[in-house]
Amino acid sequence: MIQKGRGSSVLSYKNRESIGILIGVLTLVLSLSPYEIFYIALLVLSFLIGYEVSKAIGSVLFYAAPLTFIFGSISSELGILCVLLISFYAGWKSWDFEYFLKSFLISIYAGYLLTYLLNIKAIDNYAIVKLIFFVWAVDVFSYYTGKKFGKTPLAPRLSPKKTWEGLMGGFLAGTILLAVFYGPKGLLWSPLMVAFALLGDLFKSYIKRSVGIKDFSNVLGEHGGFTDRFDSLIFTAPIYLFLLKF
């Protein structure tokens, strides 16, 4: 029985790694694709994340995310207007403030924030790839440093496995990478970038804890759903755009 358990564990680990590599390669290919293809990919991602989050929190307005993304890609003002109109409509129709908040969350998180990735690509086609590598570096080094040296819980109520030691490992990796990409400016922006990558992860964990689920879906196997994979990227995109502009 022990032998079988170990074999299953190894197989599970290999499956996770294979899916992770596939997700990574596909993400990079789409990031380097022409703007129009990248736009469509983000629109689909907005729909998928919107659907996962709406299903988790009990809202039917999953279409709020792609709708906000479409208008937000035209201009920030239209995106914000769309968020407010959809949210107020949802609250007015149901006469429930909680429903207003749910619609607001879906519109911002799965719709509006994704438009920052479009703006980044418009500035520099390779900048989006650098952001992806940064997020991966923080995520991977946080995980393995925490697994090896982690002793001090970071946010036990939200994410019991996260540790301060793991965060330091991710911070160091992210800082080095940003310094390589952007020199002294990368060092200056690194703390804020890492902080928002962590916030994205903790925000995702907060939603899951609140509704009592392990993952938003199982469409990506042991990696969970699309929301589970792109949380940090979504949160760091606005900060990264400021880095590029200033």
Give a quick summary of the entry.
This protein is mostly helical and 246 residues long. Helices cover 80% and strands 3% of the residues. The chain has two domains: 1-31 and 124-246, no CATH class; 34-123.
Q: How would you sum up this structure, described in words?
A:
Residues 1-11 have low confidence and may be disordered. This protein has 246 residues and is mostly helical. A hairpin with a 3-residue loop joins β1 and β2 (159-163). Helix content is 80%, strand content 3%. It has helices spanning 2-31, 35-57, 64-74, 76-94, 97-112, 115-123, 127-149, 164-182, 184-211, 226-245, and strands at 153-155, 159-163. It folds into two domains: 1-31 and 124-246, no CATH class; 34-123. α3 (64-74) packs antiparallel against α4. The protein starts with a helix and ends with a helix. It contains ten helices and two strands, in the order αααααααββααα. A two-stranded antiparallel sheet has the order 1-2. Belongs to the CDS family. It is found in: Cell membrane.
